[in-house]
Amino acid sequence: MKLIDTHCHLTFDDLAKDIDGVIERSRQAGVTTWLTVGTDPNENQKAIELANRFENMYAAVGIHPHDAKTATGENMAELKELAQNEKVVAIGETGLDYFYDNSLHEDQRRVFADHLNIAAELNLPVIIHCRKAFDETIEILNEHGRDVKKVVFHCFSGSAEQAKILLTKRYYFSFTGVVTFKNAEKTRKAVAVIPIDRLMLETDCPYMSPEPMRKQKLNEPALLIHTAKFLADLKGMDLADFAQATTATTTAFFNLPSKNI
Ligand SMILES: [Zn+2]
Ligand SMILES: [Zn+2]
Fold first, then answer.
1. Which ligand is nearest to the CA of 129?
2. 93 CA distance to ligand 1 centroid (A)?
3. pLDDT at res. 225
4. Ligand with minimal distance to 154 CA
5. What is the pLDDT of residue 260?
6. Which ligand minimizes its atom distance to the CA of 11?
7. 204 CA distance to ligand 1 middle (Å)
8. pTM, full prediction
């Protein structure tokens, strides 16, 4: 069985300082491919460096909506440059976060649109972070994302109704351990309407360990197995079949070498 963690932050200090142990435990758990996601200019550099160190590790480059306020035109030009590295398989994470509101909405919208333009130009998928900003995220995608071929909503925690809207737009979904939480009934209803060929897995580590490991403060890719088991059950599928299906979806979505399947 081979699982892919499509969204992790392996460059963040707590994981980076024990990276060999993190990767070893992940492989033992059957999680054998990783997409480490950049969040600012410095992390983007580190993500590419790390991806170059490990086989089956890839990078995404982006400026998180939290940091949109500091993103300059120069940063975006540099990001476009970095995105052409052969280990970079996606643009992101980008999008809108009106929950934490760490950047002005105006800055978030501008930087999000810039990411969509780069993704369209380089023909790369986009990883969307969307929190308390569903309608406006769709609006910006409609306006600036017409030429973007592949879009995934990461850490999807919306409703079944919202999932249906994204499905009509042929977007994808990835789920974190949040779906295993007791209070995530709304998200589980969304899972029910999402076909298996639109669904991917992620830890978003170091954050949000899945149940029954939620008490482990530092999440890591090895724990993806718990989210995979939980979702396989929810879909009424055998874990091996579920793993095979989500890995095939992910491999095609990010255009990874097919040895992963
Ligand atoms: Zn995010
Ligand atoms: Zn993230």
1. 1
2. 6
3. 98
4. 1
5. 65
6. 2
7. 7
8. 0.97
